[in-house]
Amino acid sequence: MKTAILGGSFDPPHNGHIDVAKTVLNELGLDEVLFVPASANPLKPSRTHPKTRLKMVELAVSGEEGLSVCDIEVTRGGPSYTYETLSELRLARPANYWLVLGSDALKSFDRWSHPEKVMAMSRLAVVPRDGDDIPSIIRAMTSLPDLRHVVDVVPMEPVKISSTLVRNHIRQGFDVQSWIKPAVWEYIKDIGLYR
User: Fold this and answer.
1) SS3 letters for 116-144?
2) What is the pLDDT of residues 115-146, one digit of tens each?
3) Where exactly are the structural domains of the chain?
4) Which of 50, 70, 125, 158 is most buried (most C-beta within 10 Å)?
5) Long-range contact pairs involving 133-136 (C-beta distance under 8 Å, separation at least 24)
6) Do 70 and 89 contact (CB within 8 A), yes or no?
7) What DSSP element (H or E) covers 87?
8) Running DSSP on this structure, what letter comes out for residue 148?
9) Which CATH class is domain 2-160?
10) In what order do the strands lie in the sheet with 67-69?
11) Are 10 and 56 in contact (CB under 8 A)?
């Protein structure tokens, strides 16, 4: 089994997340991409309750072949550290793992909690953001000399939307239906999220 983990706050999940997951799935010939919403992202705090974000992710991936959701971090609670999640998943769901990262996240990978453990348990599927030169980012990480051996660059056009942009547009009363799944939009409206 070949599985990629796409973690994050997903506040809210948008079509860019789905596009990234589908591209990684196809480009790397994987069996599945597992969306793992963070309970509490140590680098990007969210005001939206973890179970609300989990529900939105479930709605976003519903019916998408090869995409699924795992509540491991929401159930565990507290700050979400990737090395802990990978360690638990490898026991519960043995597979060859990839961790999906944007090139913007790769820039701070050496400051994560135990990046060497993450590299020992998974490969990194890196997608470009904003014209980043991924080989240069890798070369700059002198504290992680083996990083280049575990990175798979996934070619795709950089995603132009972000959860922050979606939230801001909702707050301002703009239409975001082209950016998120209809079921996610209905849920956001039903509970009055981001207003």
Assistant:
1) HHHHHHCEEEEECCCCCCHHHHHHHCCCC
2) 999 999 999 999 998 888 999 999 999 999 99
3) 2-160
4) 125
5) 134/103, 134/106
6) yes
7) helix 82-92
8) G
9) alpha beta
10) 67-69, 32-37, 2-8, 96-102, 123-127, 151-153
11) yes
